Amino acid sequence: MARKASALNDLLRMATLMPWWASLLSALISFLVFHALSLIEITPSTTSTPNNPIPVPDNLSWILIGVFSTYLQYIVPLIFLMGMIANLVRRDKGDRLLSRSRRRIQSKEQKQTPPPVNDLSWQQFESLLAATFRAQGYQVKHSLPGPDGGVDLTLKKDRTHTLVQAKHWKSQRVGVAVIRELLGSITAAGADKGIIVTSGSFTPDASKLAGQNDIKLVDGQQLAKLLEAETQPGGIETHSTVSKATIECPRCQSSMTKRIAQRGAHAGEQFWGCTRFPQCRGTRPVQELG
């Protein structure tokens, strides 16, 4: 029973991370599949042998599938619908938080104060950031829930894959360890760049390491500007001394982004990598283009 509950909980968590339309489509498909399986008419047939005198149905597997499908045709679609509703509710809360934050920041008494996020939980903080990035035209995907651990959001826009780590307001000063952690996540996911958002600030070492890589740091003051802006068509600029538009992949002529070699003779060194990785593995030395 515990394993069944765990499987259903995992399915619900997955459904909450899916786009609402994908959850709705999954609910419809799962209902049709399990409903069809539950309608299969199976005539029980048994055989017995001298070694096993107790009759055992030859088609026991199909009988069990039909029995379980009778219940799963309602349970599984319901889970997907619950995930869809939870996703829509979270999105609506994020939009409301964004509107409220903008009103507070734009009011005269809030102009010189930190962003109005100190009273938010970490879930609300992430929902607020998700709404902010959606307002900028990004496709936003939430990661598995967790209090301030690892990648929180995944952004996609113009074929660019960006990972976002949201440091809750309790992290007033973000250190270099967080930058290294996100660098590892970027490499593992094959992402193009990363963003770390906090209502506090960053240590000098953290700012230096982020500046050497394609990671954008958003501190409390920048967060206030980000929340206040109605739209920002250009998105968030990344730390780079050369515009990506001027850097073309030598193989496919796509744009390139800075990466860090994880192994080999050049481990730890920066290089320009194609944004279409792993489909394209074109590279350029950083020294070649600045």
Automatic annotation (TrEMBL):
Gene3D superfamilies: 3.40.1350.10, Bacterial Topoisomerase I, domain 1
Annotated GO CC locations: chromosome
Residues annotated as transmembrane: 20-40, 60-89
Segments forming domain Restriction endonuclease type IV Mrr: 118-227
An individual GO BP term: DNA topological change
GO molecular function, one term: restriction endodeoxyribonuclease activity
Pfam hit, one: Mrr_cat
Key words of the record: Membrane, Transmembrane, Transmembrane helix
UniProt xrefs under InterPro entries: Restrct_endonuc-II-like, Restrct_endonuc_IV_Mrr, Topo_IA_Znf, tRNA_endonuc-like_dom_sf, Type_IV_Methyl-Rstrct_Enzyme
Domain DNA topoisomerase type IA zn finger: from-to ranges: 247-287
Name this protein carries in UniProt: Restriction endonuclease
Naturally occurring in which organism (per UniProt): Halovibrio salipaludis
